[in-house]
């Protein structure tokens, strides 16, 4: 039987406290939003109370009606699915090429790609992106927005590249000797083996697209009927008489949490297996 020394007890205690603190920081905003969605606007504005004096479920009805949740939820689902599919295709192809093939300027390209991961252009890049999509005639639909949101996925490429390197290259050489082209090797050999990491990339991409606000706001200003749910929820903050209605917005935000939670619950097994496999193979 293992003996617990003072050092081990201290280490375990610090670890548990740290994990508990991180869990509290992650869960508290969600709990606060859920409780705030049941408060009156005055309670939420003045603060000072954690629990609502009387649950106001009418906030959810008002939010559902004012934000046209069905229409904007469909927009968000379509946008998130399109972006996720594009991200999976482009990042898996890029990760495969970088991991398996040599070409001129590869090291320079990867150095620049890696360096740009730590440079956040933010809103500065929105104008050239909008102009580019406008010139391509893609500003009046969700496809152009999905293409824009697909960009800047260096982290996904490096995840897939690292996972691909852990797969024996002899599989590629054997398939090549049997007459497979590089694309056939990618489609028939690589894709089935990297499904765990693709699930991680898909979940991250879906989540970031669903939660995106500023880019979606800019690209749907000309056609408000195309705006996703996140943009619609924020617009609930002000009513028709310009009075702040934080309780309605909070209720809308709480409803908007449900789809992404459902996606996570459905993909939880693949997500955990992808992270675990990546950690072991990496």
TrEMBL record:
A single GO cellular-component term from the record reads: plasma membrane
Among its keywords, does the record have Transmembrane helix? yes
User: Per the UniProt entry, what are the Gene Ontology biological process annotations, in alphabetical order?
Assistant: transmembrane transport
Q: Tell me where the transmembrane regions lie.
A: 12-35, 69-99, 111-130, 142-164, 185-206, 246-267
Which InterPro entries does the annotation name? MetI-like, MetI-like_sf
Where is this chain's protein located in or outside the cell? Cell membrane
Q: What is its main location?
A: membrane
In its keyword annotation, does this UniProt entry include Flavoprotein? Answer: no
User: CDD domains from the xrefs?
Assistant: TM_PBP2 (cd06261)
Alphabetized, the UniProt keywords read: Cell membrane, Membrane, Transmembrane, Transmembrane helix, Transport
Q: Which residues form the ABC transmembrane type-1 domain?
A: 73-267
Pfam families for this protein: BPD_transp_1 (PF00528)
The membrane topology noted for this protein in its Swiss-Prot or TrEMBL record is: Multi-pass membrane protein
Family from the record: Belongs to the binding-protein-dependent transport system permease family.
The name this protein goes by in its record: Carbohydrate ABC transporter permease
Q: Which organism is it from?
A: Paenibacillus thalictri
């Amino acid at each position: 039987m293992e003996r617990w020394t003072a050092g081990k007890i201290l280490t375990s205690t610090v670890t548990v406290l740290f994990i508990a603190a991180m869990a509290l920081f992650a869960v508290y905003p969600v709990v606060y939003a859920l409780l705030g969605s049941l408060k009156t606007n005055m309670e939420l504005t003045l603060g000072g109370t954690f629990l609502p004096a009387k649950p106001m479920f009418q906030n959810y009805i008002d939010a559902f009606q004012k934000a046209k949740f069905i229409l904007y939820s469909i927009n968000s689902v379509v946008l998130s699915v399109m972006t996720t599919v594009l991200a999976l295709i482009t990042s898996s192809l890029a990760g495969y090429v970088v991991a398996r093939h040599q070409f001129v300027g590869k090291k320079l390209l990867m150095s620049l790609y890696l360096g740009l991961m730590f440079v956040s252009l933010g809103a500065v890049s929105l104008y050239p992106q909008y102009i580019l999509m406008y010139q391509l005639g893609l500003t009046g639909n969700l496809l152009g927005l999905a293409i824009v949101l697909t960009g800047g996925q260096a982290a996904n490429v490096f995840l897939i590249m690292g996972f691909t390197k852990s797969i024996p290259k002899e599989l590629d050489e054997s398939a090549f000797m049997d007459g497979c082209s590089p694309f056939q090797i990618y489609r028939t050999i690589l894709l089935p083996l990297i499904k765990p990491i693709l699930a991680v990339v898909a979940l991250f991409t879906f989540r970031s697209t669903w939660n995106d606000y500023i880019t979606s706001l800019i690209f749907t200003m000309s056609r408000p009927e195309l705006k996703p749910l996140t943009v619609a929820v924020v617009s609930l903050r002000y009513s028709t008489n310009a009075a702040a209605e934080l309780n309605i917005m909070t209720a809308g935000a709480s409803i908007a949490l449900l789809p992404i939670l459902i996606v996570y619950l459905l993909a939880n097994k693949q997500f955990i297996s992808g992270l675990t496999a990546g950690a072991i193979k990496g």
